[in-house]
Every structure is written in structure tokens, then in C-alpha cells.
């Protein structure tokens, strides 16, 4: 089986004549957009809307194809200078398109009968929700050349700082024992069975960050100040309000979820203390043992093993999903293993020009790596479920983005626990699932709190590395409570997690997705196969409805705290079972 993904179906390289043709087509298209935007005021409304949609669709398709290829190349090797250069050129052209696109948005939003025009035209009807949101967001658009200026400045601002962060973390040498490894490799050792390996890896990881912490601090400060400035110029009340607006999510929904999480945090602290005690710690669980395996599930997986396991498992849920999983493995959608220069973590990127996805992981053969693959393949299935939408309807918001991925995790873990051979294997699987649940509740809450503190302080002060470490430790203590040993926290999580250097508040969507998916999985357990078409319809709906209206497809009221409590209770029940199994 392949070790790296196959990008040749997109382009055979930057020297591919197809890449050159598409790049030139993008340049020409930007000029067409500029000409079009200058003619808008004299255009008949329906003709202007139709032409604007056609140009926007063409732009979306071209940019997605060109930028996705360059981005995937750069993620696989941050030292790929050509990829970085090409991405810069593509983004510069996107900056050129920002002003004419904004002009079209403002013109369309000013039409008094916009909704009637869209509803009455067969070509535009699919974009009713798109234009509804366009009208809402038009009040945040900058006049004149404002959008183009902001887009151009972002290239040498937030985007450049984010690229710097990716580079310094992916190329950071870590001295572990008698060898030098990369950051992804040393972080993978947190799952090792040997307690001394985990502790040594934790200490080696923390010892490596001072070499890049000042650079990361400058990157983070610059990105957050740019966000604050952008929000002020556009009229958003705060960066969080901007995120909620862009997520098509009500603050009431976020408040209901966070309040329910607050109620259940002590239950997670109970789990952490119980695990710590079982591992011989009396003052809570030290950070280096957060991912310590328990029980006995020592099975190692090759990528072939992972393929066969997941295909067989998902065949029992939905054949369409199983077929896509097999295709992802068989047709080299996945870049599996860690290596120098490759970004850490895991992600899935939709490649719309192929009707496929590409997945990056840092596979190490553990069962948790199989779960990670299932998670990213869930994103790929979500992409597949929305593929029949038209190009401008392919973007779903951050909160629902984690739904299919976490649902896949639920399917995998439920099957694994049910099929456990003995108590020790069952303990290992339940504990692994609780590790993940603790990440999306306690750790995500700490990230949300950290980012809130950063935004509250950044406008007035530059936050040096020591300040950021202090914020991180405070956020971790508030979110993990007395479940963690306060002597062994992770003050540098703001350095290693790329989420802080990308979309604003890209944290609470993980908690949302995790809990929303658990609520959906509970419905599946009750309804069986009758649930599957409803589930697919819900995924299909995500780009063309608000978060709240999407949930209504499954009969869920997201503003009701009881829904979130019910999802959290499923985790609380597992914590009780875990405590029973270890004799607590």
C-alpha cells in the first residue's frame, strides 16, 4: 500500500501544462470579474445575478483546484519552496478578486427584490440560502477597495505568520534520549506503553519549545491583532461574534453547550484522578500520562490492517461509506507516516475537481491511529455527501464540520468495545474513548478559554511567551480542575497546536461536533438502519442551512441544554464504568 498520497490526478507537478493553463485562466477570470464589477450599476438585476453567479462558480472551481494542490504539497513538505511560492501567487490573484467580489455582494444585497428574483429563477434557486447569508453579511463588507486591501495585507500578515508557525513546528528538532526526532514523532510517544518513555518524551518536547517560542509568540500576537483590527473595521462586536456569524450559529446554542459542559466537568476530573491513582499518582494525573494506555490492547495495525478493519466495520453501517473508505486506501488518498518537514496532526481536504478527498495523518500503528483514520474518513464522507451541491454551496460551517468525523469514531469505538475479548481489552478501549472525550471537552474548553484571554489582552499588550504560557496554564487548571497534577501541565500547547494560527476560535466546534455526533449516534442505536438516510440528509443539509436548522433534520433543538446534557451523560456513564473496571 502507498505511504504517501497521490496528487497526480490533480496535477503532475507545477511544470504540468494543465497547471499553467489553469493559472492563466485564473488570471483572465480575475480581469473578467473586474470588468463585470464596473458594469454592475447599469445591469438588469436578473442578468447581473446570473452573470455574477457564473463567474463566482468558475472562480471557486479554479481557486480550489490550484490552491488545494499547492497547499497539499506544502503540508507534506513545508520545505517545498516552490509550493510556497505558487501558493503565494495564487493567493495574490485571489486578493485581486476580493474587491470585485465584494462589489457584486454589495450590489446584489442592495436589490430590494433579491429573494423574489432568486426564488423565481431556476438557475439561481439553488442559491437561496447563499444569497440570504450574502445579504446578512453585506453589512460587514468594506467599501471601495477595502476588501482587496485587506486581502492583500493578509498575505504578508496573518497568512505569512501562520506559514511561519507551520514551518518552525514541522522542522523543530527534538532531542529525545540519544537521538534527534521531530515534534510529531516525540508527541506520538505520549501513547507508549512504557511510563518512562512517556515522561522522557514529555520532558524532551517541553525542552524543545524554547528554541521557537519567541517566533511563535510573534506569530500568534500578529495574527490575533490582525483579527481584532479586521473585526473593528467591519463592525463585528468581537472576534467570537464574527466566528458565530460565519458559523451560522446562534450565541444561545454556544451558551447552552458550554453551560452543560461546565456542569459535567467534575465528572471528567473524576476520571482523570481515577486514572492517575491507577497509574500510581496521588496528586492528579500528570500531563505526560494523559494518553497512557490502560488495560491490554496491544494489537498493532499496519495500514492494510486498518483498511480491512474499517471497510468491514463500516459495511455494517452503510455500504456507500464503506466503499468510499476502500477507495481512499486503494487509490492513494492518504499520506500516512510522520517525517521531517511534514506537518503534524491529521486533516482531510476535499479535492472538488476530482470528487475525492486527500487525508494526512501521522500513523504509528496504534488503535488510536485507526480511530484517527476513521475520523478523517468521516470528513471525506461528509465531502461526498455534499458533492451534488453547486460550487458555491460546498462550504459548511466549523461547528458541523466535526459531525461526520466524530460519528465515525462512535461507530468504531462502539464496535470495538462490544467485540472486546476480555475485561482488560474492554478497559483499554473504554479508556481510549475517554481520552478522546476528555480532549474535546476539557482540552477544547481550555483552548477556548486561552483564546478568549488572548483576545481580551492583545489589543493593549504584546504578550510575550511567558505571558502566553501563564494564560495556557490558567486555562488548563480551570478546565481540567484537580484532575491534573498542577506540577505537570503543558504550558506550550499554544505553540504546538496550529488551530490558534488559523480560523478564529477553531476550538468550540470540536466540542460541538463531538457532542452533536454522540447525540446522533444515540438516535442510530435506537432507530437502526432507518436512521442512515436521515443522517445522510443531515450531512447534505449542512452547507445550505444554519447549524440550528441542520439539527432540526434529526429533530434536535440545539438551544435546549438538555440535549447537550444527554450527550455528556453518555460519556459520564462510561466514566462510571471505567471506575468500576479499575476498582475505584
Task: Please tell me about this protein's structure.
By secondary structure, the protein is mainly alpha-helical. The protein contains 24 helices and five strands. It has a three-stranded mixed beta sheet, sandwiched between helices. The protein starts with 16 loop residues before the first helix and ends with a helix.
Total beta-strand segments: 5
Order of secondary-structure elements: HHHHHHHEEHHHHHHHEEEHHHHHHHHHH
Helix content: 55-70%
Rg value: 24 Å
Morphology: globular
Write the layout of secondary structure elements.
Blueprint: H1 17-39, H2 45-76, H3 81-110, H4 114-120, H5 128-137, H6 146-155, H7 158-170, E1 173-176, E2 179-182, H8 183-188, H9 195-208, H10 213-234, H11 239-247, H12 251-278, H13 303-315, H14 319-330, E3 334-335, E4 347-351, E5 356-360, H15 367-385, H16 398-401, H17 403-418, H18 423-458, H19 465-480, H20 493-496, H21 508-527, H22 531-541, H23 547-552, H24 561-581
Parallel strand pairs: 3-5
Antiparallel strand pairs: 1-2, 4-5
